[in-house]
Write a structure and sequence with these properties.
By secondary structure, the protein is an alpha+beta fold. It has 40 helices and 37 strands. Helix 9 links the parallel strand 1 and strand 2.
Amino acid sequence: MAADPQTGSATAVEAAGAAPAPAAAAAASSGAGADAEWVAPAREVVEAAFAAAGVPLPEDFEVPPGTDVTVLSKKQLRKLIKKGGAKAKSPEELAREKAEKKATVEAAIKANKAKAKAKAGGKGKAVVLKLDTPEGEKKDMSEEMLSGYHPRAVEHAWDAWWSKKGFYTADPKAAAEAGEDGRFVIVIPPPNVTGSLHLGHGLTCSIQDALCRWHRMHGRPVMWLPGTDHAGIATQTVVERRLAKDEGKTRHDLGREDFLKRVWEWKEQYGGRIVDQLKHLGVSVDWTRERFTMDESLSVAVTEAFCRMHAKGLIYRDTRMVNWCCALNSAISDIEVDTLELDKPTRLSVPGHDPAKKYEFGTIISFAYPVEDSDERVVVATTRLETMLGDVAVAVHPEDPRYTHLHGKHVVHPFNGKKLPIICDDVLVDMAFGTGAVKITPAHDPNDFACGRRNGLPEVVILNDDGTMNSECAQFAGMRRYDAREAVQAALTEKGLYVGTAPNKMSIATCSRTGDLIEPMLKPQWWVNCKDMAERATAAVRNGDLTILPDMHEATWYRWLDDCRDWCISRQLWWGHRIPAYHAEVDGEVSETADRWVVARTEAEAKTIAAERFGVSEDKVTLKQDEDVLDTWFSSGLFPFSTFGWPEKTADLDGFFPNSLLETGHDILFFWVARMVMLGLELTDTLPFRTVYLHAMVRDKYGRKMSKSLGNVIDPLEVINGCPLAKLHAKLEAGNLPPKEVAKAKAGQTKEFPEGIPECGADALRFGLLSYTLQGRDINLSIGNVVAHRHFCNKLWNATRFAMNAFEDYTHDTPTDSILGALAAAAAAQGSTTVADTDAAVEAATAGTAAVAAAAAASSADTDVSAVTAALASASFASRPGYKAPVGSTGPITVDAPAAGGKALVLAPRDRWILSRLNAACRSTELAMRSFAFAEACSAAHHFWLEDLCDVYLELTKPVFRGEDEAAKHAARLVLYTCLDRGLRLLHPMMPFVTEELWQRLPGRGAEAAPGVPDPESIMISTWPLPVKGMDAPELDAQMTRAMGAIRSIRTLRTQASLRPSANADVILTVTDAEARSVLETFAEDISTLGSTDNLRIVDAAGFKAPRGCAMEVADDAIVALVNLSGLVDTEQELARLSKQQEKKQSAVESLNKRMEGAGWDKIPEEVREKDEEAKRKLDDELAAISKAIALMEAMQKAAATEE
């Protein structure tokens, strides 16, 4: 059915199942409106048309309005005469008909629009959403289901109820008793309190919540601890920007105390927003244990860790090279450094400099040093010319013959007159590179620093903390560093020492927070000696004690830790954990020696230590605490155990440490994960977790990194609730981006979301994110795919609504807890088989993973339900299982099949087939969850619901429920109930809201499953659906696959012929062997249902002659489908319609080919090329289908002509 290009809905004519008449089509193509007057053809034209066809023309015959007799066949003309043609009508009658026709068309258009809106979930209709459930109360499930899925209504109230009921809260005693292998403990990677969560956090939460809900349904004690990170640099930067934007002030204008008050206010504001986002996502975290990295208890843990490690000599103070951000006036960690790649000379703006000025980078500058007491010069080169003001030597290779005669001599600095030694260093100098001479600036280059330490060179710092040149720089003192670069070049030129500038590919380090260019600087800082801790961390992975998944990340682990450098943990900030180190003045004497630094848990303790150290009374000691704060990663590294009470011995620490799993993005493998492992082993002598699962990065649909300046950073709530484009723009304007960046981001948003972001709901967002998690690949997320998963939620909704009608007013005497066993027993008795145990495969897939391997060992891939069914007594159909079988229970199924109408339960092939598909989905999902294959888990559940249950089984049961066979209805109800109950539980970890809503609506919620065995209050504490012995039917699966092949062939033929769904065409299936006949006869009723026919014949192919008017399609090597189209298709009109379609699509293909083959195609953005290539593939497929349909129509036309 074609779609109206304006509305997207089917046109009125096509919706009625008929192609438009040629004249009408011509009118439409010429721009004629619906009310255009029809002009009857001249009489001679009509006579000529009838004469050409050999059909006598009645004298009183009038051509019906809108009919072009010149294109009609002999058969069509005869039908026209039989109908009597058109009778002469008065002008009044014609006017009335015209008005009626117009009203009919308008009504049809209105109806189609309403139907389209209803299909889209009720958009445009006054749908009343019930959103008044009191906080923490259970939603009223007695209310009638809405006609369509509305995520706001579905997701309302459930999270608060789950939390109030205590389903999220973990019991440390139960966890301790279960032991490491019997519990599941995970901490959330604490998001920064710098704003709001983005889709990367959404992915993390979706994965972790899916795991927690899955483990909880397996009956294990689950602890998922939430928290937020103070994020020192990130938060301080954001607050400083806001302060400057709103008040024009700096933190120094406020002072440390008042500024920190502002930061705490920011934390309260945005920390609350993060909690709100998490609750909207439905995360089942234990809110009673929410933590913030600067909570008092966690701050105590940080201080204790620092003091213990300092006492062991692992933390020390030293002057070493750091990444210095001049804009922040602070050292920053490697993870906060971005890299800008330059392929050619490029001019850039630099923070802290004249905003109207740009400076050249991507070049290398050569200049000469004059040799002392000589006419010789030594030429050196540098990409950072201003650093020559801190040069202390020139290095050459000891074996370079060009400089042998200069060994031991000096060059003279042109600006300060200092004599710089010419030294030999075979580590730093490459004779083949450049001139073979290298300038040495130990205070501003890591390689030069190492060279200086090897050769005992002085370390001359030339920059102030803000990036201006200091007093060491003579006439350049006070200049901004890049202004000084230009001034130095000019001065060297004036002295005749400038040699030249050449292009130079290079990488520039920038601060991810400020965009400033990083300066390597020598600074006295606090450091952690990582050597021994790193060795233990690498050994843990090599020995198999710690598993990293996917294992491709092990190489990164070893690369970082096998050559792990000491860690700079001090930051020149105000926001963060103040370093517990105090500088001591003794009896008024100030000294900068290392022993004057005292590390202690409190100032009082520090004073006592200092007095003892220096042999004086405490009143002679004056202390000043270090102004610096600790690197955020230090406190975050303690998160797996500080959050449970360490260093105290608490019930929580006993029950929840070590954790079971650490799940996070692979980009912080070293910066967070490795440090947790190192600190955990050092401070607790225990691995903080046994398994690390690393997910990929979320990018936009074009593969670009999420960036505020690109306008592609998305708040999960914007997807959950929807967000108009104007609101997206408004958020940018209210943020901290500079005006130019705001304009750029707005353009990005307009391109990406021209109509804004549609409302998708949390379930669709979670499912969409999880569906992308193919191991090792970044996630290029398209909101369009999330919208598709919202439609999937609507499918679940409609399937359940259909089932509720089937369940209405139906009861029987079989205990609900026996239903599953009864179905399994019936299926087994009727030919199903049990699939071999797959635990070996699970073990192999999860080898070395303690928590996951334990789960695999504890729960069989094929489990029986005897432990459930044997424990329960009689109940009505409206009840369901409430008893949790022990994980791994075994034994035969002993439940008898329930009775129906005095007859034993008999399952139709379709019933056994769907139960087998359900079992397969349970098995596939279980295996996928055990091995962290979330995309595969989503795919297995999605395939069962959409392609097996909704597209096939529900359609097959519609005539059953309309029929009179009570035994068949009874079996279908049991099967459908089981599919919904287990299918919803299967989806629950991925889609918690809609599954709870629909599961609660199934018959019998709240009743006892049996005396003393309560029905689970929530799906989240129900039993996870493991595959059941007796329900597998692999042979039946194979047979149904063949039957579906025949059905697809029938449907293809009907589609090609444009048959209406209601058109009842005769169908013949020819077979070449007995096996094919048996398959088709087994599923004959179902083939008739899905093939829309009341007349299905299965015949042997040998000697069979197809009736005229049959279209043919090969289903497989033994089955051919034929659909008799005689009298159902107007081949002339179909050919005209198809030809027009073919012409239009061919024109589109030619246009695309012209663009794709034209000059400059390779310069078009990749995302545009991919879009065009996909459109071309789609058009080619459509053209192939149209060609096939045309061939069918022509064959039928030829056969009809032969018959005549």
